[in-house]
Amino acid sequence: MSTTVQLPRWIDVGALPLMNLLLALLISGLVVLAIGENPVQVVEILLYGAFGYEEAWGYTLYYTTNFIFTGLAFAVAFHCGLFNIGAEGQAYVGGLGVTLAALYLDFLPFPVMLVVGMLGAMIFGAAWAYIPAYLQARRGSHIVITTIMFNFIASSLMVYLLVNVLRPEGSMTPESEQIAENLRLPFIHDIAAAFGIEMASSPLNLSFVYALVASVMVWLFIWHTRWGYAIRTVGANAVAATYAGIEPGKFIIIAMMISGALSSFMALNEVMGVQHRLLIDFTAGYGFVGIAVALMGRNHPFGIFLAALLFGMLYQGGAELSFEIPTISNDMVVVIQGLVILFTGAMEHMFRPRVTKMYTAWRLRRDAQEAA
Amino acid sequence: MENFELVILLLDATLRTSTPLILAALAGMFSERSGTINLALEGMMLGGAFSAAAVAFYMNDPWIGLLAAIATTIALSLLHGFACITHKGNQVVSGMAINILMSGLTALVGIALFAQGGKTPALDKAARFQPITLPGAEAVKDVPIIGPIYFELLSGHNILVYIAFLAVPAAWWVMYRTRFGLRLRAVGENPGAVDTAGIGVVAMRYRAVICSGVLVGMSGAYLSTAQGASFLQDMTAGKGYIALAAMVFGKWRPFPALAACLLFGFLDAAATRLQGVVLPGIGEVPVQLVQALPYVLTVILLAGFIGRAIPPKALGRPYVKER
């Protein structure tokens, strides 16, 4: 067999994903061309819509917050070798936790409420992830199928609760009551105003800070704690983990519950931060995009932050786009998402053999020259 | 007598709602028995439904629409195969990507072509699959018991319903009684052994995903040109996932999968009928509970509480030839 040289890190985690991303964007450009619009103009509007003015930044970072949480959620489970497709359902049920805490514990003072709301989301999200985790760990049912099923079960459950239980008397729309002022997360522009800085108002709220903190905590947890090590070991080789005295089942459950709790933080942003009540389908596919975010970010919090920013930009820019060019609806963003997942996730190995070959040839030639 | 009529109507609706599930579940079975996870059923169904409606509208012929749907889903299957079989990519991710891609692309192209907010224009009678009256149905219409069963329940469906039900024994025969089927199953259980016997694993798996594409294309066409009269944005509404659940529930076998599809179709039909109905002794049945039942049942089955569902052994593993 021919010898191959290991790729340096900058190619492995930098250049290769970037090549895949560019290919996805190139094909998106062709789609734009095919429906008769100008791709260059589309990119201009996208970038202006996402970063062109102060308010746009706020919206972009607000979307980014959701993607950081769902991306981190997917990544933690993935380090344990699990495909958690259920972030959507876990965030949805997490939203129920926040809402219940807000509606029934509204007598608590503001700072306590912040913690209680977060606990409400975490407990419900983690509990919803616990069942598929338990079934995977102890009964061997495949986590992909069970988490998909749990998304649908969550959706039915929430529709039932919103229509029959949480809907205030006399209201026709299936949504919960407004949550009290003291349970809302402060907007960033309000916080800035308190310090005398004027900022354009946007839905960006305190949960963005939570997202940054969560990223650092996930990084510490996965790479610098005993449990994180155990989770990575189980993900790399469950059999070897068993021999090393790590029980895979236990860590499958732990990883999934942390993943569920991280997904549920998305509900903090939406319910406590922006909508201030529980809406039907408020998760709006953020859970699924989290898969793309994590894969693009190579399951590392820093990569996830960059990928989340990219998707936040696409969401906010896409909204501007559908406003400016009527033939391009928000669906264009969905298409780009699909292509990005396809090329950076499913076809991530497409360029690898060729690049490895080229790099190997270059290295061998260089080594030969140096020897001569 | 009134109850009897009600039952006939409910079963009639069951046949209609389970048809797309049967076709898609068989599609999933072909792919997964050969070792390729197919989560893309939902997206492929959507793509098929869109192509069928768009082409049937332009050509005013449902059959050309059906061919277009099948061509679309075969292309998507090949894309899935290209990612999973050729490039050994992650099969779950590829499936999810195709679902998201098609959800956006069908709407986007729909708006570009027809400017009706992602819908396709309503199809004429000639551009849709019409109900077929089986021979002798009119004659026995008034015979008690047999009349309603034959006339209402069995007769009067469109051709795709009959194709779906015939596809089940056909799939069984292909899977268990032909050389192709044997090899297909072997490739999903032990690809190494198949390779040793001198049969190409990659070619076999590609053939399996193409079969899968043909079947799921028909289920998409059924939604938009037989059951409905146009394509609507995200009209599959999770049917691809229900079909997947039915396939798992049927333990990756054709006849049990048919039974699961009929059960899930029945629950769907019953949920529509039970909307707001107060049953004596039980009270109002929450429709959401009936809707969630297929998923709950599948989870219970997967947990091993109703028999064991054992997936094909090599499912989800790309084949790496030994060097």
TrEMBL record, chain A:
Q: Which residues cross the membrane?
A: 12-36, 56-78, 85-104, 110-131, 143-163, 204-222, 278-296, 302-321, 333-351
Stored Pfam families: BPD_transp_2 (PF02653)
Chief location category: membrane
Recorded topology in the membrane: Multi-pass membrane protein
What keywords are assigned to this protein? Cell membrane, Membrane, Transmembrane, Transmembrane helix
Write out the GO cellular component annotations. Answer: plasma membrane
A Gene Ontology molecular-function term? transmembrane transporter activity
Q: Please give the name of this protein.
A: Sugar ABC transporter permease
Q: Which organism is it from?
A: Thalassospira profundimaris
UniProtKB/TrEMBL annotation, chain B:
InterPro entries recorded: ABC_transp_permease (IPR001851)
Q: Which UniProt keywords apply?
A: Cell membrane, Membrane, Transmembrane, Transmembrane helix
Is Transferase there in the keyword field?
A: no
Q: Name one GO molecular function term.
A: transmembrane transporter activity
Instruction: List all membrane-crossing ranges.
Output: 6-27, 39-58, 64-85, 97-115, 159-176, 292-311
* Domain of life of the native organism: Bacteria
Topology of this chain in the membrane: Multi-pass membrane protein
Subcellular locations according to the entry = Cell membrane
Q: A GO CC term?
A: plasma membrane
Listed PANTHER family:
GUANOSINE ABC TRANSPORTER PERMEASE PROTEIN NUPQ, SUGAR ABC TRANSPORTER INTEGRAL MEMBRANE PROTEIN-RELATED
User: What's this protein's name?
Assistant: Sugar ABC transporter permease
Organism, as annotated? Thalassospira profundimaris
